[in-house]
Amino acid sequence: MNKLLLLTIFLGIVGYCTALDCATGASTQDNITCYCAHGYYGTDASKGQTCQRCPDNSTSTSGSANTGPGINIGACNQCVNGYYVTAVANTASSGTAVQCQQCPANSTTSSAMSTVGFCTCYDPNAAPLSSSVTTCACKSGYKGTPTTTAGSASTCVANSVILSIFAALLSLVFLF
Length: 176
Ligand SMILES: *[C@@H]1O[C@H](CO)[C@@H](O)[C@H](O)[C@H]1NC(C)=O
Ligand SMILES: *[C@@H]1O[C@H](CO)[C@@H](O)[C@H](O)[C@H]1NC(C)=O
Ligand SMILES: *[C@@H]1O[C@H](CO)[C@@H](O)[C@H](O)[C@H]1NC(C)=O
Fold this sequence. Notes:
- This protein has about 180 residues and is of the alpha+beta class.
- The chain is built from 2 helices and 12 strands.
- The protein has a domain at about 125-175.
- About 20% of the residues lie in helices and about 20% in strands.
- Bound molecules: 2-acetamido-2-deoxy-beta-D-glucopyranose (3 copies).
- One 2-acetamido-2-deoxy-beta-D-glucopyranose binds near residues 15, 18, 19, 30 and 31.
């Protein structure tokens, strides 16, 4: 075995022995303090304790926001990407987690949200979603089917473009 390999193994063993053990569902950044991991919450993240997993489709921020004596399920205050908030989290009394709803087809959220809102259609020319608009459709002044691919160009066509094509065709008819 070469020296570098031996050194690596030695350092690995030393590192393992000095690493701070934390609760299930927790980890440490500095080997001094344990915090419940992202997506978990708990009153004590030290070894032997357990951090609870946030309800499906919701998540938490690791640190003092999701770990400590006063922490409850209200620490699960963000919906994961692709889900929007229908009711915010509440940390009062025993707490309630944020309520999340999956984004309608062909829409998403750009980051984990914690305030009540709606998803954004992939198509930049789609009408904004709301409590009454729950499917993606081209906004007023546009026709066609909104794009079904995130990040791609709009597939809604402006009425003015359609009109000018029509006008061009019509002028051809008159020319010949
Ligand atoms: C914490 O311990 C681990 C394992 O021993 C080590 O790899 C890491 O560098 C340590 N981090 C700090 C910030 O001391
Ligand atoms: C999470 O999302 C899925 C898919 O939309 C849904 O079936 C499930 O009920 C949600 N879970 C919770 C706890 O809201
Ligand atoms: C969303 O996209 C799918 C194809 O990926 C399509 O079948 C569906 O009709 C679209 N829904 C809406 C509401 O635009």
